């Protein structure tokens, strides 16, 4: 189905019934996460964000990056998060409980992401599969724990990333897609690995789409980031753009390196300049996939978010949310396998209220979850390449001189 037809409001009754089911379950999951947020104090990040919000209210969302904040961790959040914290602070001082407020954005983002998973998958698989994947994302244990208990902004950034992919690849709305792309990296930098994919897909769709997408993304990016870049470029660069994560190593390649007895100087090299090479490699992989099959942009976004966590040199329990919903875009069993294995780890860590101190058993199951994620990412890559080969075989071969023009995909505005 092309983008213009898929955007028509005349949907079959089966699709509308499926959408209602997904909407109801997503709403129930949102309510359950908010109930968890209201009933628990959460990790230290809940208190840290209150400190950040107070500092922003005392100064402003622009100059907070120049504040020392010696009693708090590094404030490494992009400018849109600062404005969000300012709004939440105003609500908190007027009586809304902070422990629920700070976790509301992540819970709401999960709700929207579930709807996006349904819309993305139903265009690429059977309706029953789309419903199953969406319900799996709604009930994913990793997202219940990270959004309902931990909070933070990871799920919000992921939501905007998949919104951009869906709007560009499936709905043919480059202006809205460009806005969503700018917003995803303005909440948290994690989806920066997906940004080159958006531009690659827009370029393949033709000059008008690329122009609209770039204009929307560029103007909104300047509106959000411009004041901070102009006022405090040094602190922004040091605290946000160059932030390498905490020195925890309970997950991933750094944990494996230390288990293997790799000298610490090489580990720090990996965590320092080496992590830029990892980010570049993840971006290159995603662009390569999009060039092979632009229509599979949402799947490619799921792949790069999973690949980034797989190769990440930083550890954080909330980071485990990065690929959780996207794996359901790749496939049902991929999302379920990751959700169950890694969800067990997050539940255990949060139940013990020690997110930065994992037991050996939790790290062992975390390693198993890492292997599960590796398999899921590999299947995502295979899915895109298989779709590209199938499309190539289906294209008719037309004899005649080559024009040098690139293929385009149908779009709707």
UniProtKB/TrEMBL annotation:
InterPro entries hit by this protein: RgtA/B/C-like (IPR038731)
Top-level lineage group: Bacteria
Name of a matching Pfam family: PMT_2
Glycosyltransferase RgtA/B/C/D-like domain sequence ranges: 76-229
Protein's UniProt keywords contain DNA-binding: no
Positions of transmembrane segments: 101-118, 130-149, 175-201, 213-232, 273-290, 297-321, 327-351, 363-381
Record has Cytoplasm as a keyword: no
GO molecular function: glycosyltransferase activity
Catalytic activity, EC: 2.4.-.-
Keywords carried by this UniProt record: Glycosyltransferase, Membrane, Transferase, Transmembrane, Transmembrane helix
Protein name as annotated: Glycosyltransferase family 39 protein
């Amino acid at each position: 189905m092309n983008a213009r037809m898929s955007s028509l409001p005349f949907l079959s009754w089966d699709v509308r019934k499926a959408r209602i089911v997904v909407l109801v379950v997503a709403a129930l999951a949102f309510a359950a996460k908010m109930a968890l947020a209201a009933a628990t104090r959460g990790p230290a990040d809940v208190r840290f964000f209150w400190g950040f919000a107070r500092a922003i209210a005392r100064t402003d969302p622009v100059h907070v990056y120049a504040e020392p904040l010696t009693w708090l961790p590094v404030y490494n959040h992009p400018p849109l998060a600062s404005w969000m914290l300012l709004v939440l602070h105003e609500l908190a001082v007027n009586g809304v409980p902070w422990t629920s407020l700070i976790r509301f954005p992540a819970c709401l983002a999960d709700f929207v992401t579930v709807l996006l998973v349904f819309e993305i998958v139903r265009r690429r698989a059977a309706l029953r599969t789309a419903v199953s994947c969406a319900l799996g994302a709604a009930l994913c244990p990793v997202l219940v724990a990270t959004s309902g208990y931990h909070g933070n902004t990871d799920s919000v950034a992921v939501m905007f990333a998949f919104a951009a992919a869906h709007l560009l690849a499936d709905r043919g709305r480059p202006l809205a897609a460009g806005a969503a792309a700018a917003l995803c990296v303005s909440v948290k930098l994690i989806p920066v690995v997906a940004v080159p994919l958006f531009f690659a897909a827009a370029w393949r769709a033709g000059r008008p789409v690329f122009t609209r997408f770039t204009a929307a993304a560029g103007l909104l990016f300047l509106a959000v980031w411009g004041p901070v870049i102009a006022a405090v470029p040094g602190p922004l660069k040091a605290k946000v753009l160059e932030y390498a994560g905490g020195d925890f190593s309970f997950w991933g390649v750094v944990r494996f390196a230390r288990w293997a007895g790799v000298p610490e100087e090489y580990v720090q090299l990996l965590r320092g300049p080496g992590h830029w090479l990892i980010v570049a490699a993840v971006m290159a992989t995603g662009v390569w996939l999009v060039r092979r099959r632009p229509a599979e942009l949402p799947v490619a976004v799921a792949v790069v978010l999973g690949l980034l966590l797989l190769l990440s040199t930083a550890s954080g329990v909330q980071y485990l949310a990065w690929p959780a919903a996207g794996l359901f875009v790749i496939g049902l069993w991929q999302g379920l396998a990751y959700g169950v294995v890694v969800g067990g780890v997050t539940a255990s860590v949060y139940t013990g209220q020690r997110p930065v101190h994992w037991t050996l058993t939790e790290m062992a199951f975390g390693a198993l979850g890492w292997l599960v994620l590796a398999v899921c990412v590999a299947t995502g890559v295979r899915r895109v390449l298989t779709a590209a080969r199938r499309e190539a075989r289906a294209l008719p071969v037309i004899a005649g001189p080559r024009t040098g023009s690139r293929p385009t995909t149908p779009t709707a505005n």
